[in-house]
TrEMBL record:
It is found in: Membrane. This is F-type H+-transporting ATPase subunit beta. Residues 133-160 form a coiled coil. InterPro entries: ATP-synt_VA_C, ATPase_a/bsu_AS, ATPase_alpha/beta_chains, ATPase_F1/V1_b/a_C, P-loop_NTPase. Transmembrane segments: none annotated. The keyword Ion transport applies. It comes from Lederbergia wuyishanensis. Residues 246-305 form the ATP synthase A/B type C-terminal domain. Keywords: ATP synthesis, ATP-binding, CF(1), Coiled coil, Ion transport, Membrane, Nucleotide-binding, Translocase, Transport.
Amino acid sequence: MEHLRLNVSLLKKRVPNLTSAARSIGLRPATVSNLCTGKIPVGRAEVKTIVALASLAKCSLDELILRDESVEMIETKIKVLDLFAPIAKGGTVGLVARPGMGQLVIIDELFRNLKKEGYVTMLLKPDGEHPELNEMIEEVDIIANSIEEAYEKVKETEQQKDIVFATDREHVLTGEIFDLQEKLKAEGINNVTTFLVDLKGEVVDENIPFGPLETLWYFDADLVARNKYPAVNPIYSTSTVLEGAHLDESHVNIQQRAQKLLRRYRELRSLVSVKGMEGIPTSELETYQRGERLEAYLTQPFFVAEPFSGRKGEKVGLADTLKDVQSILNGSLDGASVESLNNIGKITN
């Protein structure tokens, strides 16, 4: 079947406030969000929904729907991200988190890892004083203080070098970030991958955070409360790269099996919190224990956190992540303790 996906860039440009616009014509914001990230394939969407989006964007269906477009994944070496919500190179990543959930630590670690791969790191500073950015700035090659300066500095960068670019939501609300993206693409500059953070945490309460995105990382208050870092929710976080035409079939299969396990594990944890372990049916004890091991494995010590945690940072390649997760799903590690899987890199065979 021909691979289809929405033209997210066009929607960003034509319908900046997609949440309100979608709701005003009877579309569910969550449905639109899932279509934009690829969580709901275009081929499974109702025709009337696609037609309504084309009407909002004032474009034809051929303009709204992209066919056979190649999307390249950026491997971060961060297990939970690469498995559940990988980055589309040249796309836009939105981080949904309240302050203190670790979103800046992830960006800091990501910048550190990608700099070693030859990427140029760049930050568009928000207005005012933000001391929480100070440590992250150590991993930044280029700091811009305005959209105009960011545009000029991107143009000055060697065109063969890929750029990872972070900015706060204040520059998203004005529409300037999406205008910048369109301006760069119009000049043939497609090597900038954008990360949108929200220092105030306001997007947590919105249906379509930041507007259309290629990748969404949704941070989880429950994981934070239990010190499970990085606290990225593996069920709600998603990416267009997860569509079958872009990733190896085994990756998609393992990702879907892992999500299914974690979804049920979370339901069982709710029972345990009320009734204790006796509340879990005997038939589902294995599911609970494997989910517990998988959740522990998805934690990871970061290099940028070494001075605070006292634990050596770890990078894990995607191939190792897939192999390890498959071992947990298949029961090969049923004899391992949860503690032995917590805050490690790859599993040593």
